[in-house]
Amino acid sequence: METLVSTSSIAEEIQLSFAPVFLLAAIGGLLNVLGTHLSRAVDQLKSDEDWDAGCARDVRRIHYIMWSSRLCVMTAILVCIVVILIFLGDHVEPDLTAYISFSFIAAMALLTVALVLFLMQLTVARERALIKLKAVKRVGTK
Question: Residues 6 or more apart from 139 whose CB is under 8 A from it?
């Protein structure tokens, strides 16, 4: 009878860890997008012949992308810790509920900051694109 209880407990633990695993997949997708944006920002920085305000924007954009990526990775690590604690929760003596809650709250806070930084880099990219568009229009009208 002990085997049925532990099998049931493991099944419940797997169900509890299912949502965080989807969150890990979403973070992986976000890291992929951030990597693409980083590549584009670096390419733009390399393509500029001389240093101007646009280059400074590219550097700021790269800075935002890098911090957003770091925070996403830290979020993923915390989500992995949540999954580990969920599985350990039934098998160790001290109650891990507070640690699970804290880890998940910290992960969501880090993800929120990462998304804000992602939004900031999108704003910088838009500003840079508008500057280039205005420059192209000026050249076209002359």
Answer: none
pTM of the model: 0.81
Most distant CA pair in the chain, distance: 86
Supply 104's token pair: 């998940």
* Distance of alpha carbon 140 from alpha carbon 135, whole angstroms: 9
Q: Which of 130, 78, 134, 95 is nearest to 70 (CA)?
A: 78
Structure tokens at 87: 């599985």
Q: Show the 3-state SS of 22-62.
A: HHHHHHHHHHHHHHHHHHHHHHHHHHCCCCCHHHHHHHHHH
Task: Give the tens place of pLDDT for each residue, 23-71.
Answer: 999 999 999 999 999 999 998 888 776 667 668 888 999 999 999 999 9
Q: Which residue has the higher pLDDT, 108 or 46?
A: 108
Helix axes 53-89, 97-141, angle to 10 degrees: 160
